[in-house]
Each structure stands twice: as structure tokens, then as C-alpha cells.
Amino acid sequence: MAHDDPLIGTVLDGRYEIVRPLGRGGMGAVYEAINTRLGKRVALKTLRADLAPSDDNYRRFQQEAEVAASLGHPHICESHDFRAAKDGEPAFIVMDYLEGEDLEQRIARAGPLPLARVVVLVDEIAGALHAAHERGVVHRDLKPQNIFLCRYGERDDYPKVLDFGVSKVRHEPSVETAQSEAYLGSPHYMAPEQAEGYSARADARTDIFALGGIIFRMLSGEHAYSAPNLPAILHQIVYGEPRVLSEVAPDVPLAVSEVVARALSKKPAARFGSVKSLASALALAAEQSARRRATSEQGVRQAQSEVETAPTVKAETPRSLSIAPEAREATRPRGGRGGLLLAAAVVGLVALGGFVALRWGSGGPPASARA
Asked: Which one from 4, 5, 13, 141 is the annotated catalytic residue?
């Protein structure tokens, strides 16, 4: 509850008035605040007051502020200020105030996203990650909860990548840092190298794996790896195979499913060389699949049109066999065996004529069958 939070209504660093909580986690909370000097609404991300500057979480928190401020990309939530803990106030980061919901909330509310929309989102997210990778920064905790969909212009899904708190900045980590970062990331989106406890070895391809898992989630509403608990999920990621996207979501084209499968490859070398390559491959697969589908549908419509406009052939009723008067006269009994034989012959002829009339009824019996 807001009234139970001692920070509500207080002013941090003499300028940031805390309005209400926006979210809370194990390491701290995020608040809506007002910069009283500028009259501007901002988001304040605070760190737990009991964490000392020497703590690894404190170090990551400060790194997040520095990374988010340095990248300057339209699809990365930018930080504007950082204040260390002092005088009983918690350490905090001042960030853009965003209106909307995170990607996980969107999927939970609306279900799987259309392929065309996913292609656009992946291209924008990949642009943000590419900017980070070029600066030697690997996110390492990419997941739907860390992609915020903002209201921007006419859009309600303008993506912003959040939380570079566990990002890896290009440098040689110390033994202590490597040990403390053995398992960093979110289970469903951890690459095998992370699940095995080697997060310090993460590079851009680690983010590619996570983005592949996010694409799987966006298109199917499910996870590429599904298990009842954390150890089982990690075991699947290291030793098992991801689910096949086109089997989980049959409407997804096979070519798109294959792109996602490559992004989720066990070995980093088998994945795409960059996030931009992944985004381009996804867009191409979606475009080619749409073109093939359009061609197929056009063929079906053309065939249906030809059937509907074909001329109708009117069927004629079978014609009856006419018998000449002489034949009728011949069928009258005249007594004797000869007359009976002649009558039998005529009856046989009539039967044969009926068969021929039925066989050739549509075009009339052939002339030779007429009496």
C-alpha cells in the first residue's frame, strides 16, 4: 500500500518528490516522482538502503545508471542522474517516466502477437541491443519484463529496453566478480553458457539467444523451454532441445520457426553473428512466407472463379425408341411357331433398343439403332 511506504511524499536530494510506487523487487523499488525544480515527471529507481557501496548489487546498480546514460538510443530507457546513498536516503537512479506496460504484461493480457508486429518490435529491440554491443555492453538479462511498451504518438507498443543492471561491460573480470556473476539472468531466457554457470563468458550471442526466446514467447504465448522448476529448466537448456515453434503455434510459418531455432542454438557459434542479422533473417522469412501465402490464395480464388463462370451443360432426357407400324404389325400373333419366334425376336429388338437409348440418351441414339 502507498501509505505504508515511508518514502511516499518525501523529497530526495532536495528536488525529487516521491508520488507513488510503480513497482517493487528484491533489490529496491521504482517510483513516480516529480522534479520540483523543473516540474517534470520522472521515474526514480531506488536501491535498498541496507546495501553498502561495496556490495555487488550496489555496484551493478551504479553500472546500470552509467550504461543507460551512455548509450543514448531511442529504444533504451535513458537515465539522467544517479545519487549515492547518503543521510538516510537510498541510492537512486533518475530515469525517463514511461507510460504503458511491459511485454510480458502485454502477452498475458492480449495473447500472442501478430507476426507483422513481432517483426517490427524485433527490429527495434535489435537496434537497441546492437548499440549496446558496439559499446562492448552485453545485457545478459533480456526478457519480456525488461522490454517496456510505451505510448508514443499513435503507437502503444514503442519498445524501450530496460534494466542494464546485470549487463557485462567489456573488461577482464576479477575472480571475485566472475564467481559472484556465475548465475545471472532469468531462467527461461538464459543461454546454455549462463545456465552452466559461466555468465562471465557472455557475449553478444548470449543476448541473441535471449531474443530468440522472446520471439518464441511473442508468437506462441509460451516458453521455448518449459519445466516445473528452476533446476529442470536449466537442465533442459543445457542438455535438451527447445520446443519447435511451428508445432507449438501452427500458424507460424516454418521459415520463421527455423530462424528462431537457429537463435536458440546450444553453441554460440551456431547462432546469428549479430542481433541485426537475426532481425533481418526474421523479416525476410516473414516476407517470403507472406508472399507464398498470397500466391497460393490467389490461385485458389482463380480456380474458384473459373468453376463459378464455367457454362452449364443442360442434360437431355433419354429418348424413347420409336417402332415403325410394320414392326408393330409384325408383333401381332398369327398363330403357329413361326409367329411366336417372330414376336420373340421383336421383343428382343425392343429391349436392345431401350438399352441403346439409355446409353446414348444425351446425344440421341445412333442412326443404326433407330427402327
From this structure: 141
Please classify residue 268 by burial: count the beta carbons closer than 10 Å to its beta carbon, then call 0-12 exposed, 13-18 middle and 19+ buried.
middle
Give 136-190 pLDDT, tens digit per residue: 999 989 999 999 999 999 999 999 999 876 556 544 443 333 333 444 567 899 9
Q: Which residues contact 359 (CB under 8 A, 6 or more apart)?
A: none
Dihedral-angle region of residue 117 (phi above 0 means left; psi in -120 to 50 means alpha; beta otherwise) = alpha
- Shared domain check, 342 and 278: no
Residue type, 30: V
Here the cell at position 269 is 557459434
**Whose CA is closest to 36, among 62, 6, 9?**
9
If asked whether residues 40 and 109 sit together in one domain, one would say: no
What is the rounded distance in angstroms from the CA atom of residue 71 to the CA atom of residue 302?
53
**Burial group, residue 313, by CB count within 10 angstroms (0-12, 13-18, 19+):** exposed
Same domain, 72 and 104: no
Domain that holds residue 292: 99-298
CATH number assigned to the domain comprising residue 28 = 3.30.200.20
Grid cell locating 239? 542438455
Are the beta carbons of 97 and 43 closer than 8 angstroms? yes
Taking the C-alpha atoms of residue 143 and residue 162, their distance in angstroms, rounded to an integer, is 10
Residues in the chain: 371
For cell 420373340, name the residue: 344
Cα gap 71→109, rounded to integer Å: 31
pLDDT tens readout for residues 198-254: 777 889 999 999 999 999 999 999 999 989 898 999 999 999 999 999 999 999 999
pTM for the predicted model, two decimal places: 0.74
CA-CA distance, 265 to 281, in Å (whole number)? 15
Asked if 68 and 60 touch (Cβ cutoff 8 Å), the reply is no
Q: Which positions ≥6 away from 214 have C-beta within 8 Å?
A: 103, 125, 142, 143, 144, 147, 189
| Catalytic residue list contains 141 | yes
d(CA 183, CA 195): 7
Say if 47 falls within a structural domain. yes
